[in-house]
Design goal:
By secondary structure, this protein is mostly helical. 43% of the residues lie in helices and 8% in strands. The protein has a two-stranded antiparallel ribbon. Helix 1 packs across helix 3. It is globular, with a radius of gyration of 13 Å. The mean pLDDT is 93.
Length: 74
């Protein structure tokens, strides 16, 4: 799994503290939403040339890590 910490940061002053791709204002949610709606990695990179494949995969890695660490309250 790609080390998403090299590509994703959280800054309270950018996009209301949502996780974003470093050097952009593009959130992890944006990328995941595009993928969920059927865009391919190549299509995302065509529409957003500031992104590369590793950054997009880092969003998936971030989401997988968050899912893995979810704890159910009892």
């Amino acid at each position: 799994m790609i080390d998403y910490k090299q590509y994703i940061t959280i800054n309270a002053g950018i996009r209301f503290g949502k996780p974003i791709i470093i050097g952009t204002r593009i959130t992890v949610f944006d990328v995941l939403n595009w993928l969920a709606n059927g865009m391919t990695i190549n299509e995302i990179m065509e529409d957003f040339p500031e992104l590369n494949e590793n950054q997009i995969k880092a969003c998936l890695s971030y989401a997988a890590d968050r899912e893995h660490n979810i704890q159910i309250a009892s």
